[in-house]
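Marked as duplicate of an earlier ticket. Keeping the data here for the record.
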Amino acid sequence: SGPGGFGDVCAVLRLSTGGGGYMVLSLPAPTAAALAGGILGAAEPEWELVCDCAGELANVIAGQAKAMLV
């Protein structure tokens, strides 16, 4: 795991409504790489793409949560 008990890959989104705060998606490197590989159709995606996919996944989760709460 990464620093502070977080996973190796963290995507952090600042919440601007509902009092603010942050949403953190934290994943171990193997999980992040497997998710990115599945999304991109690549057996071993480059690390930069793994990180980009984690950020995009966090955006999708936040968007779905917002749609459910509004």
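See parent ticket for discussion. Strands lie at 9-14, 22-27.
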